[in-house]
Amino acid sequence: MSDGTSALVLFSGGQDSTTCLAWALERYAHVETIGFDYGQRHRAELDVRPVILDAMRARFPAWGEKLGEDHLIDLGVLGQISETALTQSSAIEMQENGLPNTFVPGRNLLFLTFAGALAYRRGARHIVAGVCETDFSGYPDCRDDTIKAVQLSLNLGMDKRFVIHTPLMWIDKAETWALAYRLGQTGFVDLVREHTHTCYLNDRTHRHDWGYGCGTCPACDLRAKGWIAYRNAEAS
């Protein structure tokens, strides 16, 4: 149901952000998207973004009527100052501080700040992000407390009332698949499987039941396990 307002969705081209985009399209009269090129190793996510948007417009006309402009922001400077497994070719491993080296320091803070600046200009009150505390990789910038702090900073710093929505914050990956089904039934689940990109190693050649990816990196492992749990719950 629409409440007559506008939303801006942080849209990477991955499973979570695509599900959040559908969530927003069910609720708001006008929805725009924002993505970021920060020199990420898994650049396939940038390639699938327009494919997903076109597929959503074609397969879900009611959503297509609400889907507005897509904005791709160049944040290459973030990749230049990051030494992580997501911004350079290095093995994915845990670090001494207990965080995986796929953590890009400041990434979500920057993403939300730029989203707030764009939302201010575009007249959107609602900002939607696919961060998750239940099923995340230990990233501190995915925590609910972090998001609440950023929301407060945006509201104070821009003297405007923004609301940051995190529909996936307290659900796991299996429940994210289930949410996709509730939003768009089998057609949307199939779209997510076929077109979204999750794999940290940028693999779009190996096809699995849950979609494309190497099948071994942490992102693929999480997505695959969630898919299996979702299918088992459906069957029971």
Automatic annotation (TrEMBL):
Cofactor details (free text): Binds 1 zinc ion per subunit.
GO MF annotation list: ligase activity
EC numbers: 6.3.4.20
Pfam families named in the record: QueC
Range of residues in the leader sequence: none
Pathway: Purine metabolism; 7-cyano-7-deazaguanine biosynthesis
Name used for this protein in its record: 7-cyano-7-deazaguanine synthase
Source organism of the structure: Fulvimarina uroteuthidis
Gene that produces this protein: queC
